[in-house]
Amino acid sequence: MSTQPKPVRIPPLPRSEWTDEVRSALGPLVDRDPLDNVFGTFIQHPDMFRRYSPLGIHILAKCTVAPRERELAILRIGSLNRCEYEFAQHTPIGIQAGLTSAEVERVHAGPNAPHWNDLDRAIVQAADDLFDDGTIAPTTWSELAKHFDRRQLMDLIMVIGVYNMISWSLNSWGTELDEKLSGHPWPPPAR
Question: Is the full-model pTM beyond 0.90?
Answer without folding.
Answer: yes
